[in-house]
Amino acid sequence: MTGEAWLPVIEYVQSEWPGRWLAPDLPGHGRSCWGMPYGIGRFAAAVAELLCQAQPVYVLGHSMGAAVAVALASGWFGVDVKRAFALGIKLEWSREDLERSARRAVRPIRWFDDEIDAKKHYVKVSGLEGIVGSRSPMVSAGVVKEHEKWRLAADPRAHFVAAQPPNLLSVLDSRVSFAAGELDTFISPHELRQLQPDAAIFVGAHHNSHIEQPLAVWGWIFNQLQDVLG
Predict the structure, then answer these.
(1) Nearest residue to 205 via CA among 120, 131, 126, 125
(2) 3-94+164-229: what fold?
(3) DSSP three-state, residue 59
(4) What is the domain partition of the chain in residue ranges?
(5) CB atoms within 10 A of CB 172
(6) CA-to-CA distance for 111 and 155, rounded, in angstroms?
(7) How many C-beta neighbours within 10 Å does residue 111 have?
(8) 164 vs 95: CA distance, rounded Å
(9) Burial of 206 (0-12, 13-18, 19+ CB in 10 A)
(10) Average pLDDT of 72-96?
(11) What are the tens digits of pLDDT across the range 197-212?
């Protein structure tokens, strides 16, 4: 997905967050450039380059972006992360998961003659069917026109990340908060609560809970930042 996937949450951020904010496209996604290699470390380093290292920051990530948020909180990238919010992170990677990811990464680019068809495909592969329409701004950001045809904006190779680095979760401390949708197929409530007993579960939400239930997601963040938000 692109940074526009956060638009429903950004509505609350704009009205209630006292500082600056940004929702970047990770390398190989949206408007960001394509180019191997891809990986959690590469993504985290790219985000760190956008941040002022002299100032504390709060980071929020979803799915693969959640792993990036955790990596940034590790201190490995020179960023002073006061709190990281990891939403819908995938912890367990089976051999089948990795093989599926590898196959997806080498698929040829699919071209569409029509913008609407490209947008419908983006909605489908992003798990957004029944959640947003093809005319949504977050969908428009997911496709691009090139040589009079349309394709998805993301580099297929960016989808392949060889599971999370095995020592990623070893950096966890009280600065990292986890949450997921109750019906998220990437991580079950049981898995999440084993990792963090007080992790937030959004009842009735699936993997894209920040789009399905943006107010609940913002409430999860807001309640933990009372010292900042007042």
Answers:
(1) 131
(2) Rossmann fold (3.40.50)
(3) strand
(4) 3-94+164-229
(5) 16
(6) 13
(7) 14
(8) 13
(9) buried
(10) 91
(11) 999 999 999 999 999 9
